[in-house]
Amino acid sequence: MKSKMSRAAVAVSVVATLGLTAACGGGGENGDNTDAEKKPSAGSSTPADKPKEPAGQGALTEAQLQKAALTKGDVKGYTIADMPAEDMPAETVPAQPAACQPIANMFFFTSDPQAKARAGRTVTPKDELSGSVISLALAAHEQSDAEKVMADLRKATENCTKYEHVGNKYSGVEALPAPEQGDEAVSYKLKGDIEGAKIPMSFTVVRSGSTLIGFYSMNMLDADKAKVPAEVLEAQVAKLEKAAG
Fold it and tell me: Least enclosed by CB within 10 Å: which of 85, 125, 175, 210?
């Protein structure tokens, strides 16, 4: 519980600091970034029109995930670093109402069923005035478990509008058009009331085989920029598919 609260507070602190910098410096927005919805489908993309991958595809190892995760120099204009282990707690914490649990879990890149292994990254725009805080994580599952996590997330975006989790309140949960990436994808947005700060957030989760890639982006300066950058998402999916292939 303590690590979860710490992570939320750090995110607020970082974005608030960026907000102060922007207020002092003015202008300089990172307008070149496009968002993860640049190739949207209606609602969320599903595997309905895609060839079915072999049944029983096994989970990748932690070493394979680390090799497949983005690293320094992989995406121009961003600084990429390992996510501290304490920022990715393994356990889930109940959310209220329960219909929102899959969405609450994804904030910390947890899930039910739990992943066999995970690898996380923080992605920081080199444009200091962008106001964005971006994180991603790769999660290795058995095929059926990965599909269940995606189905539960999709259902939650339809049935959840607001919830409470780890002492924070979230509202305005709304499904977004998902990118045509991987075997299926789910995207949604919400607003978090964390440590008294109202923060727009955007999430995208992509399944490629039995591996899930979770992305989220926060921005206190501009709600329209609280989106997962397409260049980050596409680079990560491509790197995973190349490594898994």
Answer: 85
Instruction: State the residue for tokens 């600084």.
Output: 79
- Residues in a beta bridge with 187: 176, 204
Cβ atoms of 78 and 126 closer than 8 Å: yes
CA dist., res. 114 & res. 111, Å (int)? 5
Planar angle of CA 4, 2, 83, nearest 5 degrees:
45
Phi/psi of residue 128, nearest 5 degrees: -65, -15
What is the pLDDT confidence band of residue 233, given thresholds at 50, 70 and 90?
very high
Q: How many residues does the chain have?
A: 245
What pTM was computed for the model?
0.80
Contact 106, 205 (CB under 8 A): yes
pLDDT for 38 beyond 50: no
